[in-house]
Amino acid sequence: MNYDCLIVGAGPGGIFSAYELTQKAPGMKVAIFELGSPLSGRHCPIDGEKIKSCIGCKTCAIMNGFGGAGAFSDGKYNITNDFGGSLYEYIGRRRAIELMEYVDSINTSHGGAGTKMYSTAGNSFKTKCIQNKLTLLDASVRHLGTDINYVVLENLYNELKDKVDFYFNTPVEKIKKNEHGYTLFTKKGEFCGDKCIISVGRSGSKWMESVCADLDIPTNSSRVDIGVRVEIPAVIFEHITSELYESKIVYRTEKFEDRVRTFCMNPHGIVVNENTNGIVTVNGHSFEDPEKKTENTNFALLVAKHFSEPFKDSNGYGENIARLSNMLGGGVIVQRFGDLERGRRSTRQRIEENTVRPTLSATPGDLSLVLPKRILDGIIEMIYALDKIAPGMANDDTLLYGVEVKFYNMEVELDENLQTRHEGLYVIGDGSGVTHSLSHASASGVYVADIIASDFNKA
Length: 459
Ligand SMILES: Cc1cc2nc3c(=O)[nH]c(=O)nc-3n(C[C@H](O)[C@H](O)[C@H](O)COP(=O)(O)OP(=O)(O)OC[C@H]3O[C@@H](n4cnc5c(N)ncnc54)[C@H](O)[C@@H]3O)c2cc1C
Description:
Elements: E1 2-8, H1 12-24, E2 30-33, E3 76-79, H2 87-91, H3 93-112, E4 116-119, H4 125-131, E5 134-136, E6 140-143, H5 145-160, E7 165-167, E8 174-177, E9 182-186, E10 189-198, H6 205-214, E11 219-220, E12 223-233, H7 234-244, E13 249-252, E14 259-266, E15 270-276, E16 279-285, E17 296-306, H8 314-329, E18 333-336, H9 337-341, H10 348-353, E19 363-364, H11 373-389, E20 399-407, E21 411-412, E22 425-427, H12 438-458
Parallel strand pairs: 1-2, 1-10, 2-7, 10-22, 18-19
Antiparallel strand pairs: 3-6, 4-6, 5-13, 8-9, 9-10, 11-21, 12-17, 12-20, 13-14, 14-17, 15-16, 18-20
Helix pairs in contact: 1-12, 3-5, 3-12
The protein binds flavin-adenine dinucleotide (FAD).
């Protein structure tokens, strides 16, 4: 089978590449290969009754399939260059913001119109943060919510399905250069294309490494973020979340001058398990639907760890820490902040008596046996710093779930067109190491599709 453009991965990066190609070069023959299922076929077996925790399915319905890792996410599209990736370093700050705004317009025209856009601009809370040694990062955030995010994806799929060939449950095993472009090898056969966009996200990171090794594409890997997910009564952060929804607050620790930051805030949300390559870590969701809202808010506190020579396996370091929590707790561990401060484990009884009701059934335990001291000290310092802008944060009953790890894909060497050293082979989204978010991954897809469409229209 021959195509003008092959896309590997149907996450936001792949979807927005395909969408843009159909808009800008409708004559192009495009195919998407996705190792997971269509959106309607993505079902995690955890039902809370018969199956309570991750059973390590061969293909994870949460991470793989149409919509990628973002399909069941909270659908927070942050429009900013301050976090979420370094796309601006390749394409310029203005262009990056324009593309993220364009992605937002597509989301709103495909079902997201009624959702709210929050902004930090001109917010008095920023001053309060500075006065307490905290920095609030600038951003606008469209909060689709898990439910509307799903509707938007459904609408995008319905629009694309007759214009693009989708190959689901079709992992690409190998990519080879041919005379005209690239050949993809799959169990369903070989597929050729003049151009190829790889957008395999974080779950495809190991495969991406093998592609880079085979095609001799240089890479670099040096960062991992490690921490916990905090769960508190929603009222404690209400004055912040009602105005900003998602606030990214950064704190520089006094002891080690490490950067600790809040990440992925879910007002009135739930804490969930996440499975990355068989390792269970923690994450969070929230819903637009008032019926699904809880009385708690959760967010991550992460410490950024940068490694220098000779150590190169930053993700391996994060994985091993997460493995330790899996070893001790059989999955995610939960601990009361008061227990952590008193140097004792949380027990089932203490969790049952806690005033903050956990939204995830995790194993009560001791996070100090899992997290390195430097990271734990940073998190504790940050909790006390946040207590000054949100009194109650450092209460004994605040729940900490561990561990949360933010893995960063190795960075693939790319030029300003997000093209590898091989002409016509592009790497976008989280799999490139350039982006770490829905809006940046989607924007990178639009950017590359514009370049490919323009070449096609000129030819
Ligand atoms: C629970 C959760 C919540 C999140 N919430 C948010 C949020 O609110 N806001 C935000 O900005 N970000 C969020 N993120 C991160 C966000 O989902 C990612 O940044 C984004 O999905 C990256 O898009 P992508 O297209 O690069 O990769 P992905 O979404 O990971 O998609 C890659 C796709 O490629 C497929 N694939 C992998 N290897 C192969 C192969 N060999 N052959 C064929 N297909 C392959 C995978 O199955 C996957 O479907 C969340 C992530 C998770 C897990």
